[in-house]
């Protein structure tokens, strides 16, 4: 081993002379504002504010459509909370909470056309909902019975991706395929792809490479970064020195920051971005500026790295509350509607719970099935041997 | 004698190494305030500061690649990879740079980097959190690969790995993190690249490493009831393999069962089998057997009891060997 050299390491952290865009003071972010460029259509107080660039993309959202979005938000939050509870009760090995990110996901998910394709990370329960994946289909991953049971082709919703950033290249490749097949243009069947990832993921090489490829091949892909301010214990400023949406410029495409707690703005901005991609003006990077209101996963302990005040600050920007206030105060929606959604969410939660408890454990065959498309003699032999061994215990 | 969990033993080992040498750095995702997702680095940033315990951006290629650069500059970085399945974004840096720099530079550029990887299954996790990729590293020339199996070894091995001028891939059996053992803080430790007989015996040799060592010891206890006296060897070092004690043992017992969680084809276990039949052919009373994971991706966790080598599967192999 080489001898210690003449270098004295600092014992405490050297304070940075340069406050980052989202500077942290003792674990509490100095700002929870998205900045001047933030696109917002519905304020935290439930007030509809005009935006000349994006209003037209939300023009069709009448009272009924807004009620539908509200319903989405409530139901998604409800089954997410149920997932958390099921983990606490030992029914799930882990749960990845979505709390606080409902609007970012419903806005994006509802902006998609049926022929579009989504590549999610692992927290996209709201996008799954919008793509028509039944919430019970998400349970197997977290209960340990499967790695994703829905059909990615039929739903236009790819399997969850746990390795951070991996899906950005896959999404880009898929989008290149859409382009190669002539599905980009003004036609009614033109297509786009949307790729979901977190602020932490933007540090991965795969995400950078995805941006490069998408740019040079003009791939019709919307990169949708949910900046929920944290990557487990690491704040956004541990990943970047500039606001994330500004990175797009360096790759040669548009980047935009939207209030990720404003479902209307997320819907409008994503519709615009998908349209840009469909018509050949993509890719586009969207940074949905939001907040993870719960732990990273049920295995995480956020009290170690962030202050409760930060959460309190963000509670004032709750994505559901502002829609409710707007529906009541500005649009005069009656209490019966909210009661109905409440009842519906209770029923969904009950169905979700029951399904979870009833899920059968897969047998040992599951290990050996579908490893290869063309089969494998080695795996087949192992299956036969193991099943014979396994059945030797029967009746013992 | 201290009684420590394996996680705490590694923590204490890291702390001792950092106290001894100011050039030792700890780097990885969440290793600072959070103390790592397994809390193995708990408290280190508080005591050594943010420039010796670096919460890095979320990028494994970045973690390994910058560690290589830091090592070129004279530091001794200890990188934490959060889970086995997440090392692959950094695999290129490990294979192309970390493993080869010393050789390429004809010794002018040593790269004393340790890459800590919690590995193996048995914790009920979602996919990519339970893999055993050690063969992929053991196959790469220029890397040294070790796996600890208990707190005492973990405490010493991490310090030896850090002191090594070679790059060391350091596998930690995550399902054993919370198991306690006596750690003699004043002992003269076993050298890093040495396997070790952990239970002497005469009728059959069981060789394993990492998480399955405990299973092997349990199997040896259980086999006693059947009158079998098993010798258990902890391989500890997977590259280079230290097979001397295994050869000696097999020459006495005539039988060998190798146990590992990784898939069997072209694995570390396969290599042990091949070498033993080369060296001990005339002493063997039975074919060398392997008890391993299957040649499939790691299954959903509700299947892992079937996937992982358990007491029954080890005893079944012992019976087959003894019955030869
Ligand atoms: C390649 C890789 N490294 C590490 C991890 C462990 N890990 C899981 S989630 C996570 C943080 C991700 O943060 P971010 O990208 O911001 O997404 P968020 O979870 O906040 O939505 C980490 C480090 C992983 N899954 N994959």
TrEMBL record, chain A:
Annotated ranges, domain Dehydrogenase E1 component: 73-336
Residue stretches of biased makeup (Low complexity): 8-17
Gene Ontology biological process terms from the UniProt entry: branched-chain amino acid catabolic process
Keyword line: Oxidoreductase, Thiamine pyrophosphate
Cofactor (UniProt): thiamine diphosphate
A Pfam family this chain is assigned to: E1_dh
Catalytic activity: N(6)-[(R)-lipoyl]-L-lysyl-[protein] + 3-methyl-2-oxobutanoate + H(+) = N(6)-[(R)-S(8)-2-methylpropanoyldihydrolipoyl]-L-lysyl-[protein] + CO2
Coiled-coil blocks: none
Assigned EC number: 1.2.4.4
A GO molecular-function descriptor: magnesium ion binding
Region (Disordered): 1-31
Function: The branched-chain alpha-keto dehydrogenase complex catalyzes the overall conversion of alpha-keto acids to acyl-CoA and CO(2). It contains multiple copies of three enzymatic components: branched-chain alpha-keto acid decarboxylase (E1), lipoamide acyltransferase (E2) and lipoamide dehydrogenase (E3).
Similarity comment: family membership: Belongs to the BCKDHA family.
PANTHER family: 2-OXOISOVALERATE DEHYDROGENASE SUBUNIT ALPHA, MITOCHONDRIAL (PTHR43380)
The protein, known as: 2-oxoisovalerate dehydrogenase subunit alpha
Organism of derivation: Pseudonocardia broussonetiae
Automatic annotation (TrEMBL), chain B:
Cofactor(s) essential for the protein: thiamine diphosphate
Domain Transketolase-like pyrimidine-binding: 4-179
Domain of life, per lineage: Bacteria
One example GO MF annotation: oxidoreductase activity
UniProt cross-references to SUPFAM superfamilies, sorted A to Z: Thiamin diphosphate-binding fold (THDP-binding) (SSF52518), TK C-terminal domain-like (SSF52922)
Transmembrane intervals: none
Annotated keywords: Oxidoreductase, Thiamine pyrophosphate
Protein biosynthesis keyword on record: no
Protein name listed in UniProt: Alpha-ketoacid dehydrogenase subunit beta
Protein species of origin: Pseudonocardia broussonetiae
